[in-house]
Specification:
Bound molecules: adenosine-5'-triphosphate
Strand content: 5-15%
EC number: 2.7.11.1
Keywords: ATP-binding, Cytoplasm, Cytoskeleton, Kinase, Nucleotide-binding, Transferase
Number of strands: 9
Helix content: 25-40%
Pfam families: PK_Tyr_Ser-Thr (PF07714)
CATH superfamily of the largest domain: Transferase(Phosphotransferase) domain 1
Main location: cytoplasm
Distance between the termini: 50 Å
Radius of gyration: 21 Å
Structural class: alpha+beta
Number of domains: 2
Subcellular location: Cytoplasm, Cytoskeleton, Microtubule organizing center, Centrosome; Cytoplasm, Cytoskeleton, Spindle pole
Length: 377
């Protein structure tokens, strides 16, 4: 049962749940405004020092005002747990918005009609090692692994930070003694009929991805994300947890970037909490974030590259069974060309995605403005 009252806010219903807490539709009893309230119930109860830090973070967030950045109205502490009050977006997450088709998109006003976001399955930004054998969710009341949208695992419990990450990546270099990387096709897959069916399915998938109006929406949304990033970077902020579920599109097709500042509040400069756990979603993390190095705006541009790559090709640039395998790939392996996966994909957007995904920071675009220019060409 959700609480009825959180500070001066009356809880109306639940909009969704993520790794660190739950987002409620709520009424501000002082103004009668409807807002979205994110209660970080997976966080540790705040001591007085952390509550003061939250208030300081809020001062930075409250100053932000940009059409593509969700407005933050208030922060507070409820029964020891921090909450964030923000503008209520009547819209969809980016992935769901791109999945809309036909009649959903053509209302007389030019806006799109919504299957309500709460009625949709949660956005699947999560990594696919939820059933990894090393799962262990008994560690901590503040479950940052959950914030990372994966099932917690020992690998994610990184006491010692960057050094441990490097050790894990090194360990991932060891040959797989269980032979799970045996890539020989099974007899069934070698069957030409099966191969033909596989090819047809793949073609149908990429035709769906390449629908011209989907591509138009993707490009338009990416341009707006660049505007939002340019704005927050201009204010000295790094998002640190950019992913499709943190990008919402409202009924007027206006993109809103959300959840910036949260990762910073939850972690120190290297993206680690006091006990050495990561904050952020592994699948979208840049090499420098994995290595626990100080982050700048270019880490967000890398995450934007992962998002663009996924939305163009239908699959993530790196696919691994465990976090350590993923890290090893992010640090050492070049992603397969988007156009090798989606033969009829947009070459310009594919080029942008690959440059965003460069491992060396200096090889990437350096600013969100540059990415905007490249997308708009
Ligand atoms: N400002 C908002 N207005 C309307 N709906 C929102 C708002 N913020 C979040 N939501 C809804 O609540 C859901 C859960 O959001 P939340 O931020 O908790 O999860 P998440 O982004 O999937 O995960 P994480 O906690 O890892 O960032 C979102 O998918 C979205 O549908």
């Amino acid at each position: 049962m959700p609480p009825k009252l959180i500070g001066p806010y009356r809880v109306m219903d639940t909009l969704g749940s993520g790794g660190v807490g739950t987002v409620y539709r709520a009424l501000d009893r002082r103004t009668n405004d409807t807002v979205a309230l994110k209660l970080l119930s997976a966080a540790p109860a705040l001591d007085a020092r952390a509550a003061r830090r939250l208030a300081r973070e809020y001062e930075t967030l409250a100053e932000l005002a940009h059409p593509n950045v969700v407005k933050v109205f208030d922060v507070g502490v409820f029964q020891g747990y921090p909450y964030l009050v923000m503008e209520l977006i009547e819209g969809l997450t980016l992935r769901h918005y791109l999945d809309l088709r036909g009649s959903d998109l053509h209302s007389p006003s030019g806006s799109f009609s919504l299957p309500r976001s709460r009625a949709l399955p949660s956005d699947d930004d999560s990594d696919s090692w939820g059933d990894a054998e090393d799962s262990d969710d008994s560690e901590s009341p503040f479950n940052l692994a959950a914030f990372s949208e994966e099932e917690p695992s020992e690998d994610m419990n990184l006491h010692g930070g960057a050094e441990s990450v490097r050790a894990l990546a090194d360990a991932a270099d060891e040959p797989d003694t269980e032979g799970s990387d045996d890539t020989r096709p099974s007899p069934a897959l070698a069957d030409p009929k099966v191969q033909l069916v596989e090819r047809r399915i793949q073609e149908a998938r990429t035709d769906e991805l390449n629908r011209p109006e989907r591509m138009g929406r993707l490009k338009d949304a990416m341009l707006q994300v660049c505007e939002a990033l340019a704005y927050i970077h201009g204010h000295g902020l790094v998002h640190r947890d950019l992913k499709p579920s943190n990008i919402m599109v409202d009924e007027d097709r206006q993109v809103r970037l959300m959840d910036f500042g949260l990762a910073k509040f939850l972690a120190d400069d290297a993206g680690l909490t006091g006990d050495g756990r990561f904050v952020g979603t592994f699948r979208y993390m840049s090499p420098e974030q994995i290595l626990g190095e100080p982050l700048d705006a270019r880490a967000d541009l890398y995450s934007l590259g992962v998002i663009l790559y996924e939305l163009l090709s239908g699959r993530p640039p790196f696919d691994a069974k465990t976090p350590s395998q993923l890290w090893q790939q992010v640090l050492e392996v070049e992603p397969a060309p988007v156009l090798a996966i989606n033969l009829k994909g947009d070459p310009q957007l594919a080029r942008v995605a690959h440059r965003l995904l460069r491992k060396e920071l200096d090889d990437r675009y350096q600013t969100a403005e540059e990415v905007y220019e490249a997308l708009a060409e």
